[in-house]
Amino acid sequence: MPLSPTRTGTDAAQDPFPLLGNDSDPDVSFNLALGDGELQGEAIPGSLHLVPCTLDAYLELPNKAEDRYELSEGVLFYRDTMADSNHTKVREYIASKLRVAKLSGSRRVNIYTETKVSVQSQGSSSSVRIPDIVIGPYVSSHSSSTSSPASKKMIFRAGKVPIMAIEITSPSNRAVDLCDKSIQYSKTGIPTYVIVDRAGRRVIVRTGAGQSGNHGGYQCERVFQGEQIVDCRLFRDQALTPNMVLDPPQTAEEVIQSPIKRAKLLATLEKETAKAARAVVAAEKGKTTVAVAAAKTAQAGATAARAETEVEKERTQEARAETEVEKERTEEAKREIASLQRQIEELKRRRT
């Protein structure tokens, strides 16, 4: 018996997609009927894995849960284990390089990361894939801002085909990227499919969609390794090689987070801090030396000033002494003159 979702509660009859919870009722639980038994589970990430689902119900998954699932042949597949830190790093590096490509006129494109693409599948059931990177026809920001909510949730619906899809393999989905998705992308008519095969250390470019070719549904396949420039649109413009995209340079944040790099940075920081401290001490020492020299100069100036004062004092005393001598000489001369005058007066009296 196929896995079928049912919801517990009195309002199950009114719910168009019984498995889905209500955003205002986060504690809702479900019953997943499996054979003759039931599996009781909470609405947690991954709980909808392998659950049958229609396209409309898929797009109505709450809280952006659809971003964690792909829809293949009408069955949900959980994506949480597909990516790791290196996978994310490779995806962001490629997207950033493609975004800075100088394109103009008819060569302008829009670049999306992890956007939904409606693809053709083997049967009549709907399939929605979420390539790591999608290159689409150029759409202005004004046009995209006026799109309907449904169009924003899935830009590439049936009849809207991307120019290129890029997938970065992970151990859990490598075979799907190389085969299943390739066939679906070819049937959908996506002209170029690029596979960044991390396990194989290569970049695969497939072209010739819709021709039922031998390369995952594509007619042509070219494989690039090492320092070969990947010869396809945008990659060629940026001269990207497999080694560049598989081993992107570390960001400043990653360098800081690396234990070895962090230890080196800390050692360098400590060295620079010690150097700065020594410079401060030297500067303070220099300031002290200058202050001492200034104090000695001031002291010498004061001593010189005192010496000059003493000299002036001695000169003043000498001048006073000379003045006293002159005064005494003057008094003595006056006395001698007075004595002579008395003698003259005495001689005058005697003659008379």
User: Element order, helices and strands?
Assistant: EEEHEEHEEEEHHEHEEEHHH
Distance between the termini: 185 Å
How many domain modules? 3
Q: What is the fold-level CATH name, i.e. the topology of the largest domain?
A: tt1808, chain A
At the first level of CATH, what is the class of the largest domain? Alpha Beta
Low-confidence stretches: 1-42
What's the pLDDT, averaged over the residues?
77
- The number of helical runs is 8
Widest sheet: strand order?
6-9-10-11-12-13
What report would you give on this structure?
With 352 residues, the chain is of the alpha+beta class. It folds into three domains: 1-72, no CATH class; 81-249, tt1808, chain A (Alpha-Beta Complex), CATH 3.90.1570; 278-352. It contains eight helices and 13 strands. It has helices at 55-59, 85-99, 141-145, 149-153, 174-188, 242-246, 252-257, 259-351, and strands at residues 4-7, 29-34, 37-42, 69-72, 75-78, 109-113, 117-119, 127-129, 133-137, 164-168, 192-197, 202-207, 220-225. The model is unreliable at 1-42 (pLDDT under 50).
Kindly list the characteristics that best describe this protein.
352 residues; alpha+beta; tt1808, chain A; 3 domains; 3-stranded antiparallel β-sheet; 13 strands; disordered N terminus
Topology:
Elements: E1 4-7, E2 29-34, E3 37-42, H1 55-59, E4 69-72, E5 75-78, H2 85-99, E6 109-113, E7 117-119, E8 127-129, E9 133-137, H3 141-145, H4 149-153, E10 164-168, H5 174-188, E11 192-197, E12 202-207, E13 220-225, H6 242-246, H7 252-257, H8 259-351
Parallel strand pairs: 10-11
Antiparallel strand pairs: 1-2, 2-3, 4-5, 6-9, 7-8, 9-10, 11-12, 12-13
